Amino acid sequence: MPGQPLSLVEAYLDDLDRALAGIDPAERADVVASIREHVDASLGDRPTAADVREVLQRLGPVERIAREADVGAALAASPDPSPGASPDDRWPRWSGPVLLGLGALAIALIPTAPVAAVAVALAAGIAALIGVRRAPGPTGLLRAAAALCALAVLLTALAAATLLGVRTELPSIGTPVEVVSPGGG
Amino acid sequence: MEPTAEGVLTQMRKGVLEFCVLAYLRSGPAYGLEIATELGRHETLFTSEGTLYPLLARLRKQGWVETSWQESRSGPPRRYYSLTDEGRAAVRTFAAIWTPFSDGVDAVLGKAS
């Protein structure tokens, strides 16, 4: 029965492949292929079941190989979280609530300090928009913050327009339009 | 809880075994079974030959080792592992620091006993 010992090999490699499910697919394929080679190189043309068992035993339990692969993956992933690694990881998670708060502050400032309100709304709004693009995970709060800031700018603009509209009715301030019309006539 | 010898060895191998593989490759390219057999002579280095392969995959990813296929007289072509320049530099660094390191450990163990 020449097929029988080799089916032990196939079963072992299948188990190994399943045990490596958590690692990078290319590395997984690499490990399985190189262990298959190791087995082929170890066994002669007509291996007995005992030969196969010995080779597999020396390779060790598939779980142990998988653990080594996991440890390696962890080591490779952790050593230096260098600043240039990934912008996503550097976007702080607290930015959503804070920017939302700034948006609310901007709206609160409109009646008393409209210029400051626009400045705060623009800064927080731009930060929130950048955050929506870069932040890992959910961006709902950042979107809300951006919307709130846009609303703050809009409200300030409306308020300004309304105020200017009111003032244009006063003779002293509504000059620009009226200066032009006599020149045209 | 008292650690087993195997547990302690597992910890110690983590930083060392990969440099043993690199050191072995200084003498020239080798295929997996060859590396496993040679390093396997030293029982403290390996308990399971299979653990060599994730390690080799990692070294390759790291750019310290590269692979190439070479014909074998018996059977299909074999994957040979060889050192890159970076890998060679890594072994040099390891070798330079290993002696003071093991001297330090020896000294502390000597004092403790």
Automatic annotation (TrEMBL), chain B:
<dbReference type="InterPro" id="IPR011991">
    <property type="entry name" value="ArsR-like_HTH"/>
</dbReference>
<protein>
    <submittedName>
        <fullName>PadR family transcriptional regulator</fullName>
    </submittedName>
</protein>
<dbReference type="InterPro" id="IPR005149">
    <property type="entry name" value="Tscrpt_reg_PadR_N"/>
</dbReference>
<dbReference type="InterPro" id="IPR036390">
    <property type="entry name" value="WH_DNA-bd_sf"/>
</dbReference>
<dbReference type="InterPro" id="IPR052509">
    <property type="entry name" value="Metal_resp_DNA-bind_regulator"/>
</dbReference>
<feature type="domain" description="Transcription regulator PadR N-terminal">
    <location>
        <begin position="21"/>
        <end position="92"/>
    </location>
</feature>
<dbReference type="Pfam" id="PF03551">
    <property type="entry name" value="PadR"/>
</dbReference>
<dbReference type="InterPro" id="IPR036388">
    <property type="entry name" value="WH-like_DNA-bd_sf"/>
</dbReference>
